[in-house]
Amino acid sequence: MTAAAGSPGGLPAPAPPVNPETQEFWAATAAGRLLLKRCLDCGSVIWYPRAICPDCSSLRTEWFTASGRGRVYSYTVNHRGQGAYQGSAPFVLAYVELDEGPRVMTNVVEADTADLAVGLPVDVVFHDTGDGSALPRFRPRKDR
Amino acid sequence: MTIRGKARIAGAYEHPGRKISGKSVAQVHAEVALGAVADAGLSLSDVDAYFCAGDAPGFGPLSMADYLGLKQLRYLDSTETGGSSSLVHVGHAAAAIAEGKCHVALITLAGLPRSQPMPRPSASGLAPEAAFELPFGPTTVSMYALAARRHMYEYGTTSAQLAAVKVAASQHAQHNPHAMLPNPVTVEDVLESPMISDPLHRLDCCVISDGGGALVVVSPEAARDLRRQTVTVLGHGESPKLADNGRIDLTYTGAVWSGPRAFEEAGVTQADIDYASIYDSFTITVLQTIEDLGFCEKGKGGAFVADGSLLAPHGALPFNTDGGGLCNNHPANRGGMTKVIEAVRQLRGEANGPVQVPDCELALAHGNGGSLGTRSGAATLILGREGA
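Above: the input entities. Below: the structure tokens describing the complete assembly.
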């Protein structure tokens, strides 16, 4: 695997801070799987992953593998990257609504900006951070 | 229990500086503190409550209280909700005064982001959400751009309509000798300015300025001894708007909750408001907020602002007559303090001549802090002219 900054879109892939509560999520991304949490009491899908269900306060949650499919809820072409993204502009910051429900902050990659639209179907791709994790980003669905 | 009429704003002061060199942040806090107590006809030795937010250097309110030499303190509050903090502080000060906990509350805000750029929070931030947001490169502008895009998608709002907010602010700023951007601009100017984060252009964004401001909130008993005209705190509402377990909705703000609470406490309606200070970190912030406060139907904000409604003194809802964050001043990257200060000026009849709303009796001030793109804190104040 290529280390750090290795995304096909040329975007940096900064490593997220990982803690015991989120370790399983990030380990799965390195293996190419997008995990979500579900509440065992009320059934809510939980985003972002955490030990408590923010809908019913239950502490009984389980991980499950998400489909990796979703649609663009909103997007912006950012022309002024900062921090690790300085020099990466233009790039797309977006919220993608996963088929399982949650709206997640991410980047849309491998897309012509002219094709971007709210509602665009997208699939997850993983960009290795070089630190035992990978960033879940999304690209336009190819089989639509 | 209500705070209606139980506290008065007796002092308000805005630092005239927009680029301040050779001073520390604590020093600017001190300058605005002295300005506000002097405006009230008081001194720092009269202060028995102190309020500040994350812009105050040091440990909560303790460092600045110590720096200022506040010796009579019996009430402290360092609630941090970004740009809405100062409005929250006014509400909390009024509640504390109504309960008899204190009589003279000082609120300060200051920062030097223009001359001493503030460090960006790093992805190693301890916030529980940090790992799921910061690695994707969100910037302040781009998160508001996400909100603007979604509002456009759902309601047909256009970039030209957003630009109308900036145009109105610039019309007002030309009368403010301290405004950082005093020149009127047109819709075309906004649309032709560089795209920062699509659909937001440079002129859709507030300024980055040094400066600060302070307020003194007092009990009616303390106000009796003052010669300066005071402003009555009639209503206050605050609410966070959170990401809500992955159900974030980018088309509205926490004003949908803070607004009704403030109106109910004040016992007035939107139609009664003569002047409004509306938080304007970006043009989209204003547009969503005026919808959420009920000044127009949800989704119709674009048509409302494009119609000249925001223009003082005779528009349907004269707003931000100092030029707001978009043109005048956004000290410490927080526009809440100046929102309250300009509302006080309007109610005292001390706004700049051409934009003074005639017979201004009731004003609303609204702040929004954090980010419309993730989590934000809204606060609404309704203020009344003394004796009105």
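Note for the figure: Chain B has one domain: 8-115+205-385.
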